[in-house]
Amino acid sequence: MKPLSRKTDDLIGTYRTFGEAGPVYEVVRKVDGATVHIVVVETGEELNYPAAEALIDPEAE
Fold first, then answer.
1. What is the pTM of this model?
2. CB atoms within 10 A of CB 51
3. Is residue 61 assigned to a domain?
4. Listed residue (24, 46, 23, 21) closest to 36, CA to CA
5. Domains: count for the chain
6. Which residues share a beta bridge with 37?
């Protein structure tokens, strides 16, 4: 199993959804080993989001 920080690096540049039917967001950069910076596509809102949550959110289609 990859360490969390390595998995977090793999998230950068991906588009995901909050849960199965939530809004789409882009993972922009890693803040630290446990947090990523995201942009919600629909609203343009930027926020820090737990990397562990992003890892389980599905990729957007």
1. 0.89
2. 21
3. no
4. 46
5. 1
6. 29, 48
